[in-house]
Task: structure prediction
Amino acid sequence: DAKTTQPPSMDCAEGRAANLPCNHSTISGNEYVYWYRQIHSQGPQYIIHGLKNNETNEMASLIITEDRKSSTLILPHATLRDTAVYYCIVAGAGGTSYGKLTFGQGTILTVHP
Amino acid sequence: DGGITQSPKYLFRKEGQNVTLSCEQNLNHDAMYWYRQDPGQGLRLIYYSQIVNDFQKGDIAEGYSVSREKKESFPLTVTSAQKNPTAFYLCASSYRESYNEQFFGPGTRLTVL
Result:
């Protein structure tokens, strides 16, 4: 699986959009980008994933560049409850990866009042 | 409500003792996973199981053992052979069609004295 690079920490004001970047320059054609988050002392929570098109769900939006070498997770209106560690993971979908996810150190997002 | 249960939340054991961590899910998921997390670090995969009566080693399986006798249950035994067992242990599960969209339990924090 391709390696990802994320900034160690970011700050965001409550109510503003939080834009979390991720570099994955070695991503291969059949690999997806997944995002999870982990609130302190809890289990991680799946947020969203995508292959090459932009994706949106009730939690967030995922923007993947055309060359697929980087992506941005967008929380459109951050709240204090969005303070967490955000993990960007690249993995093959379905049976090819068998769910063997590689969690790096992620980005600590702190949302301020 | 469907979900993943891990018990207990906190566990203390003396050095040299084996200890079994419980993980139960009622999501009808096919696959189950065990991860370990050390302070300030990402998650590392210990074992995973795609179907009942079958499981595979992850990245750090040494000193651990598992069983998968029922679809709902995937207990992890931390043996005395594990050199540094104090950690936060997380169990997860997923459907076979979407291995990388994993649902996590609340975790068990194991402290070996």
Summary: The first strand of chain A starts at residue 9 and ends at 13. Chain A is about 0% helix and 45% strand. Chain A has a mean pLDDT of 93. The radius of gyration of chain A is 13 Å.
